[in-house]
Amino acid sequence: MRNEDISSRPLCLSGRGVTKIFTTGKTRTVAVDHVDFEFHEGELISIVGESGSGKTTLSKMLLGLLNITEGEILFQGQPRDISNMHKRREYWRGIQAIFQDPFSSFNVFNKIDTVLLDCINMRGGKRLPMEKKIEMMTEACSFVNLKFAELTNKYPFELSGGQMQRLMIARIFLLKPKILLADEPTSMIDACSRATILDMLLQLRDEVGMTIIFITHDIGLAYYISDSVYIMEHGKFVESGSADDVILNPKAAYTKRLISDVPKIYEPWDLNTVAQ
Ligand SMILES: Nc1ncnc2c1ncn2[C@@H]1O[C@H](COP(=O)(O)OP(=O)(O)OP(=O)(O)O)[C@@H](O)[C@H]1O
Ligand SMILES: [Mg+2]
């Protein structure tokens, strides 16, 4: 993937001068400050920045959950129109998110069958025969190593954290959105299930050809999985480009600092230093 020129692929999501200013009383916070971006079909993009740099605010604007103060977001090259609920629902067919906390992703009153059936209905499968729907749900569950037969009639809160996270991915498997936004699951899960989830997302990307926007603090991980990396500091993109360019040849002082904070997994061993 990396060696292919991703920038020659069609644009999936792009933005010009996208800005969010929160005003509460007399306090004015510029959370996202005139960012430009171009995400292509099938591209895996990481947005990396420290806490408070504006990553979640930008994600919410990309998802259409938060109004933009200034600037423009384009979906497949056209200005995005989410001016009413109908258009917004249509947009959400194309872009879906998984959040840090799997518990916040489900309506606790819906049984797992309903959660998955809703996905099939959203994709226009409402009139399919029930046997077909069960077949699709079974396939989605087995993609994430869950057994559908054991989940029917259960509620999401009856699952373990890890199972719930996998159920979140089973939803994405059924919805097959063009774009998946993943606010990195950090604190909630251990490194092992984090790796499993990442593997599943990468596999989905290859199978469905999704664009994945991955939000993370972890620049080492971003280098490992991404085609492109955007570095965010105080609401601005201070640097962006291919993962190799940005991380092996960083220009911004902030990027250099983020890199110096992580173990040097991508630098070759310098035996001279080791010997000393
Ligand atoms: N609803 C809001 N009202 C006012 N200020 C807000 C609101 N949401 C976010 N902010 C402010 O905007 C800035 C960016 O916050 P944001 O949540 O986007 O950061 P983040 O990069 O996602 O951080 P983290 O890595 O900790 O999740 C912060 O200064 C935050 O306090
Ligand atoms: Mg955040």
Short account of what is shown:
This protein is of the alpha/beta class and 276 residues long. The chain has helices at 55-63, 85-94, 112-122, 130-143, 148-151, 161-175, 191-208, 219-225, 243-248, 253-260, 271-275, and strands at 11-24, 27-40, 44-48, 70-75, 78-79, 95-98, 179-183, 211-216, 228-233, 236-242. Strand 4 (70-75) and strand 5 (78-79) form a beta hairpin.
What tags apply to this protein structure?
276 residues, alpha/beta, 6-stranded mixed beta sheet, 4-stranded antiparallel beta sheet, binds adenosine-5'-triphosphate
Architecture blueprint of SSEs:
Layout: E1 11-24, E2 27-40, E3 44-48, H1 55-63, E4 70-75, E5 78-79, H2 85-94, E6 95-98, H3 112-122, H4 130-143, H5 148-151, H6 161-175, E7 179-183, H7 191-208, E8 211-216, H8 219-225, E9 228-233, E10 236-242, H9 243-248, H10 253-260, H11 271-275
Parallel strand pairs: 3-8, 3-9, 6-7, 7-8
Antiparallel strand pairs: 1-2, 1-4, 4-5, 9-10
Helix pairs in contact: 3-6, 4-6, 6-7
Bound molecules: adenosine-5'-triphosphate and magnesium ion.
